[in-house]
Amino acid sequence: MSRNKTRHLTPRQRTLAKLFDVACYRNNRGMVWSDFVTMAAIAISNTVDKDQAEEREKLYLQLATKYNEKELEAMTRMFAEIVEGLDEDPDRDLLGELFMALELSNSFAGQFFTPYSLCQFMASCNIRPSFLEEQIDQKGWVSVNDPACGAGALLVAFANECRKRDINYQTSVLFTAQDIDPTVAAMCYIQLSLLGCPGYVVVADTLRHPAECLDDRGLIPAPGQTVWYTPMYSLGSGTGGGRRKC
After folding, report:
1. pLDDT digits (tens, 9 = 90+) for 112-121
2. What is the DSSP letter of 223?
3. Is residue 170 packed enough to be buried (19+ CB in 10 Å), middle (13-18) or exposed (0-12)?
4. Is 120 in the same domain as 57?
């Protein structure tokens, strides 16, 4: 990883990069990143999504067997750094920025994530004065969707824009996302989950297999899809949703 790539990273992201190097000592960097975010996503999901917990736990253990104690310890510390990083600075694409700085995009079909500053601008443009408040007053909640979510930067920016306007996105917004790549979908899921966003991430090709729902409000994804439900969604939120309430 070049020095030029890391100069814009925060101290927390630099710590993550160093821990990632430890985890990659014996293995391919792209594979390690994919395994790490998948295991982190499973660790979050299995606290609330009991329907898929057994199958995902098997996958977690299968992935973990590739790594020795030192490498797994580095991954554990990485997860803790992500939790603390998003808690102290929620208004950034922590994982997406790190992904690009680590030059992992070359391992995943040359992906390039939209810079967070642009996502902030797009989010601010899409929240017209009083529009969200009116919709929430009328319907109780609003929804936002990103059909090619990547690491979830646009949705994270939307959540932060709501917060700046004193809109409680944890009770008044449903976040839905989709991406064909399970690795970046896991990144999006981690960030939405740790920021307390109620919603879900569907892993599928949006053009060929757009996410389907059982209801016309988009609250209940249809069965047969790979879906990651955030803890805030699974536990029930003010959006009238939650798997336990629908």
Report:
1. 788 999 999 9
2. T
3. middle
4. no
CA–CA dist 61, 65 (Å, integer): 6
Helices (H) and strands (E) in the chain, counts: 12, 4
Number of domains in the chain: 2
Separation in Å, CA 245 to CA 45, 109, 233, 236: 18, 39, 10, 7
Asked if residue 188 lies in contact with residue 149, where contact means CB atoms within 8 angstroms, the answer is: yes
Residue 240: pLDDT band (50, 70, 90) is very low
Contact between 167 and 136 (Cβ < 8 Å): yes
Provide the residue range defining the domain that includes 170. Answer: 116-234
Q: Is 242 a member of any domain? A: no
Query: Would you say residue 28 lies in a domain?
Result: yes
Phi/psi for 6 (5° steps) reads: -100, -10
